[in-house]
Amino acid sequence: MTKAFAARGAEVVVVDRNPPPADDERVSTIIGDLNDPEVRLSVITEGTAGVIHCAAITSVLQSAGMPAETYQANVANTAELLELCRKHSVPRFLLASTNAVVGDVGEKTITADMPLAPLTPYGATKAAGEMLLSGYAGAYGITASALRLTNVYGPGMKHKDSFVPRLMRAALSGDTVRIHGDGRQRRDLVYLDDVVAGVLRVWDSGFTGRAILGSGRSISVLEMVETARRVTGRLLPSEHIPAPRGEMPAVVVDLSASERELGYHPTVSFAEGLAAVWQDFLHDELHADRRDSPELDSVIARS
C-alpha cells in the first residue's frame, strides 16, 4: 500500500509499532502505538490529504479473549483519528473493515447493503467504526469509505495469526495443522496486490460508502490445506478440533457493485498468491538461519 502511493509521488507517513523491514526514502515511518495521543497528533496535521486506517486487532479469536483491548484499538482509536481529521480539515478517510459486520448469514452471498448483525467483538467493533465513519461523513463532509475486506493474505504476514501464515509455519516446521470443525467452511481469500489495486481505485474515484474487496471465489479450509501441500511440497499433517463460537460456515461475497462502481477486478488466484507467500517465508527463514550462524555471517562479511 505505502509503496503504491509513494510510487505516485505522494508523501506517505506510516504509523507502526515496529520498524519497517526496509527503508524507503519516499516513506516516513513513525514508530509508535495509536493508543498514544502524541503519536496520533504527530501523524495527522494540516495539509494531510487523507487517512487510510488499517491498524486494528483483526483476530476474531483474540477479540473474544480481550474485548476491552479490541474496543480501544478498533473503536476508540478510530474515533480519535476521525476527530483529528475534523479539526485539521482532512478531506478523506478510508477504513479497513470486514464482512464480519453482517454476522453469520449461513450460505448466503454477502452484499454491501446487508444489515449490521455482528456476532463477535471483532465484528462489533468494526461495525462501530463504520457507524462513526458515516456520522463524520454526514456531519462534516468527510469523503468516507468503509472497505469490507475478505481474508487478506500476501508477503509480509509472518507475524500474523490467521490461517495462511499458520499453514506456512507448519510447512516450515513439520508441525500439525489444526482445522476447526470438518474443514468444509468456506472463505474468500484475497491477495494483497488485489486489495491495493482496489484501494487505489477507491482513492482515485472519491468513492463514498461501503465497498467489498475480495477475490470473488470462496474455497474450503480443506482446499486451502491441499493447495498449501502442492505449493510447498510438504506433507502438512492435519487434525480436526472443535470450531469456536462465531465460526461462520461460509464467506461468499458479491463483487458486482465493486466491479461496476470502481472497476475492481481481482486477478491473483489462491495458488499463485500462496506460492508468493511461501517464497516470502522461505526467504525469511534463510536470512534467520544466516543471522544465527557465525560461519555464514563471516561469509557475508567477506563477500
UniProtKB/TrEMBL annotation:
**Domain NAD-dependent epimerase/dehydratase, residue spans:** 2-205
Q: Which InterPro entries match?
A: Epimerase_deHydtase, NAD(P)-bd_dom_sf
Query: What span is annotated as the signal peptide, if there is one?
Result: none
Any Pfam family matching the protein: Epimerase
Q: Which residues cross the membrane?
A: none
Q: Which SUPFAM superfamilies match?
A: NAD(P)-binding Rossmann-fold domains
Q: Which family does it belong to?
A: Belongs to the NAD(P)-dependent epimerase/dehydratase family.
Q: What is this protein called?
A: NAD-dependent epimerase/dehydratase family protein
